[in-house]
């Protein structure tokens, strides 16, 4: 299979320093593998309530200003609804997806009764309330039957799913205990990130996922879905995060400022800042293209990419 990487931004705001780190890392990882490898862009606009009009196009312009151009035309999740519907239907047919009528308040109250109250920034572990039916409540979401799937997998007999990250090393998670039955689709329409990303990566032939470290704990869930749907599992590399003054991850939600790519000099400065976060040397070139070319062999040495 042709080696393929991708950058998949959500158009909820412009690219900021943290998202440029992920974009640069995924681009370098592909280019370090030689001219036959592909770098793709996917605009993850499935959650239409959070996405801003015209922001996908704006992000593509920012990337182009930095010299980060895809090898094929970008795809948009809002144009792929039928693929996600087919995947959900398959999981339903396998008995691995069920409707849930619980609100967040319902889940919090159930967890409190179990002596496991939800804490801020902690995972809201679904307690399985609707596994045996809706009990007269309207469906609010479809959930993946995690425990049911794991119990049928001999490789998961220990309760933990383990995988190896190219930067972080061996990672393990007991999804049933640490996450519970996670959402595949909300009743009001938007597709959950977990299902959409698994379907898209498989259809695009993505062999290597390079993304921010904050998404590492999503990986076990995605591997479960890949196995349930009979899809291949790519390799994973999770990059360092850019953090704000308070130590939290820099993000659109906490006021991250858009990168400036209005001039070639500004675009190069933004790339150089991202490269430093990734452990690369400061750019010595005067423009983006030669700076990017200079970082490719350095990335290969750091992350052992195949030439």
UniProtKB/TrEMBL annotation:
Top EC class per UniProt? ligase
Question: Per the Swiss-Prot or TrEMBL record, what residue ranges does the short sequence motif 'HIGH' region cover?
Answer: 9-19
Q: Where is this motif: 'KMSKS' region?
A: 249-253
**Cofactor list:** Zn(2+)
Record bears the keyword Secreted: no
- An annotated GO BP: tRNA modification
Q: Do you know which InterPro entries this protein is assigned to?
A: Glu-Q_tRNA(Asp)_Synthase, Glu/Gln-tRNA-synth, Glu/Gln-tRNA-synth_Ib_cat-dom, GluQ/Sye, Rossmann-like_a/b/a_fold
* Keyword terms, alphabetized: Aminoacyl-tRNA synthetase, ATP-binding, Ligase, Metal-binding, Nucleotide-binding, Protein biosynthesis, Zinc
Enumerate the Gene3D superfamilies for this protein: HUPs
Q: What is its EC number?
A: 6.1.1.-
What the entry lists under HAMAP family is as follows:
Glu_Q_tRNA_synth
Provide the family line. Belongs to the class-I aminoacyl-tRNA synthetase family. GluQ subfamily.
Protein role: Catalyzes the tRNA-independent activation of glutamate in presence of ATP and the subsequent transfer of glutamate onto a tRNA(Asp). Glutamate is transferred on the 2-amino-5-(4,5-dihydroxy-2-cyclopenten-1-yl) moiety of the queuosine in the wobble position of the QUC anticodon.
Protein name according to UniProt: Glutamyl-Q tRNA(Asp) synthetase
